[in-house]
Design brief:
Blueprint (H helix, E strand, L loop, with lengths): L9 H4 L12 H4 L9 H15 L1 E2 L19 H9 L1 H4 L7 H7 L1 E2 L1 H14 L3 E7 L3 E9 L2 E6 L4 E3 L3 H6 L25 H8 L3 E3 L5 H9 L2 H18 L2
Parallel strand pairs: 1-2
Antiparallel strand pairs: 3-4, 3-7, 4-5, 5-6
Helix pairs in contact: 3-7, 6-7
Length: 242
């Protein structure tokens, strides 16, 4: 589902500098855990890999160009759902992190869904956190006494738990101190260090993307083709018994 044009989109978009630098499927090879790699080292590395291999893009004009609407050849049920319920499905964020990564475009929540999925596949506890209604990050429990906030949208790691940051939002200032370097000088309304500190001091809640219909549809899309094959199967069976 990944359109190769996403690798040059930033030239016209002029938002994030070096937004996506790792191509698909090469990015998949970098997700394998290295021998003797600790939970912390793995999580920090994966956070950066996803940052480099996943584009920050969610514009309406890219609905079909970048398959924000699930294409009919990928899943015809989700495709038709985009016309029945466009608010939810016209620009669709997959629950399945592998599908998000394959498509390669999304906002902070898309980046975070991918990191969460990879960490959980490797035995770590992770959850998505909505920060002040303006940003989504990953809260990752990396061992018994270490919990980090991972922000794959920016490739930033905050080595504190959300409770510590809630008590003192200034803890995120240093990790996010170079926000200006991540944007083109003429980027429209970029997030600043001060703004990040402000929203981390606001409310936090669990961000959920688990859509039962998506899981059901990837199973159900095979029902119709199988039903079409039934008459041929019956005819073949009868022919073989004549």
């Amino acid at each position: 589902m990944r359109n190769p044009e996403i690798y040059t989109e930033e030239v016209t978009l002029r938002n994030r500098i070096n937004d996506v630098t790792i191509k698909y499927p090469e990015v998949l090879e970098m997700l394998d855990r290295k021998e003797n790699e600790s939970n912390i080292d793995f999580a920090v590395r994966i956070n950066k890999v996803v940052n480099d291999g996943y584009a920050h893009y969610w514009k309406k004009k890219g609905i079909d160009k970048y398959n924000l609407r699930v294409p009919i050849w990928e899943n015809y049920m989700l495709y038709f759902a985009s016309f029945v319920n466009p608010e939810k499905y016209e620009r669709y964020e997959f629950s399945d992190y592998k599908k998000n990564l394959e498509r390669g475009v999304g906002l902070c929540s898309g980046h975070s869904i991918v990191v969460k999925g990879i960490l959980m596949d490797n035995g770590m506890k992770a959850e998505l956190m909505d920060i002040g209604g303006r940003h989504v990050v990953v809260r990752a429990e990396l061992n018994d006494n270490v919990t980090y906030i991972l922000d794959p949208d920016y490739g930033i790691v905050v080595p504190y738990d959300t409770a510590a940051v809630q008590a003192n939002p200034e803890l995120v200032r240093e990790p996010y101190s170079k926000m200006a370097d991540l944007y083109y000088p003429d980027a429209i309304d970029p997030y600043t260090t001060d703004f990040i500190v402000e929203i981390f001091g606001s409310f936090k809640k669990i961000y959920s993307v688990d859509n039962w219909f998506e899981h059901f549809s990837y199973w159900a899309i095979w029902i119709f083709p199988l039903l079409l094959m039934v008459p041929f199967g019956i005819g073949y069976y009868r022919q073989g018994n004549n």
